[in-house]
Amino acid sequence: MTVQLFGTKKSNETKKVERFLKERNIDFQFVDVSIKAPAPKELDALAGAAGGHHELIDTGSKSYRKRGMQYMEFDPREELLDDPTLMRVPAIRCDGGAAIAPDEATLKRLLKV
Fold first, then answer.
1. Given CB 3.0 to 4.6 Å as the disulfide criterion, which of 28, 29, 96, 100 pairs with 110?
2. Could you give the residue ranges of the DSSP H alpha helices within the chain?
3. For 4-111, which CATH class?
């Protein structure tokens, strides 16, 4: 099973998911979105699980407020590819699907643990 965890090192929610995976000895690849953007196909898979690219936009993020995006019309996919710090984290992608800001029950269902 290939598991990818998208998040940031500073996010407490990302740390919770990381701890969940480590406690169950689940190997995973961590992608720090503040350093590296998800590939377009990865982003599309996450968007499919979230209900669309617009659902991936973190309207409470510093990047969102700093850019004044609440007053703009924009293509969420293009903005996320351009600035991955706009993405809601944590996000997890695995063979069982994908989830944005998953709770423990969602993680157990996705990872079948």
1. 96
2. 12-23, 40-50, 62-66, 76-82, 104-111
3. alpha beta
More confident residue, 107 or 45: 107
Reading the block at residue 19, the tokens are 């701890």
Chain-centroid distance of CA 73 in Å reads 22
Is the alpha carbon torsion for 12, 104, 56, 7 positive or negative? positive
3-state SS class at 13 = helix
pLDDT grade for 1, boundaries at 50, 70 and 90 = low
Domain ranges of the chain: 4-111
d(CA 1, CA 4): 10
Instruction: Yes or no: say if 102 and 49 are a contact pair by the CB < 8 Å rule.
Output: no
Q: What is the DSSP letter of 57?
A: B
- Give the pLDDT confidence of 90-107 residue by residue, as tens digits: 999 998 888 999 999 999
Q: Does residue 71 sit in helix, strand or coil? A: helix
Is residue 56 over pLDDT 70? Answer: yes
